[in-house]
Write a structure and sequence with these properties.
Strand content: 15-25%
Strand order of the largest sheet: 1-2-3
Structural class: alpha+beta
Shape: elongated
Number of helices: 3
Largest sheet: 3 strands, antiparallel
Number of strands: 3
Length: 130
């Protein structure tokens, strides 16, 4: 996903779902990066892990912030979010109305994995062009 132009035709509910996904992704990548740093390996791949995971996290964070700006332009602001059992619950204000969206943790995990795959594919295509 390259930017805000790609999302202009989307509805607020889909934008909110993407906002949640990218927010989770950039935080999870940083947690995983911390764990990878503590794993003893035969060779040091730290520079590779650092670069890949930091770039992935930065990409996800940029997408997250672009979506937040677009949502704000459309009158949507996240009020709170929390994990509740097997569900991720997001409360947001949309044009004065308080709304709630619930997302399955397992589905979010699978969708985050798809986003990682898309990022890798985009990055590989970009490297081949250069």
């Amino acid at each position: 996903m390259s930017g805000q132009q790609e999302w202009t035709g989307e509805g607020e509910q889909e934008l909110m779902r993407l906002y949640v996904l990218f927010g989770i992704l950039f935080r999870v990548v940083m947690v995983d990066w911390g764990k990878v740093r503590n794993v003893p390996l035969k060779l040091s791949y730290q520079a590779v892990f650092d670069w890949v995971l930091l770039e992935l996290s930065r990409w996800a964070e940029r997408q997250h912030h672009q979506l937040r700006r677009l949502l704000r332009q459309r009158g949507c602001v996240v009020v709170s979010y929390r994990r509740q059992g097997h569900v991720y619950v997001v409360q947001y204000r949309q044009r004065g109305y308080l709304r709630e969206a619930c997302y399955s943790i397992e589905i979010l995990r699978a969708e985050c994995q798809e986003l990682v795959g898309k990022w890798v594919a985009q990055h590989q295509r970009g490297e081949r062009i250069s």
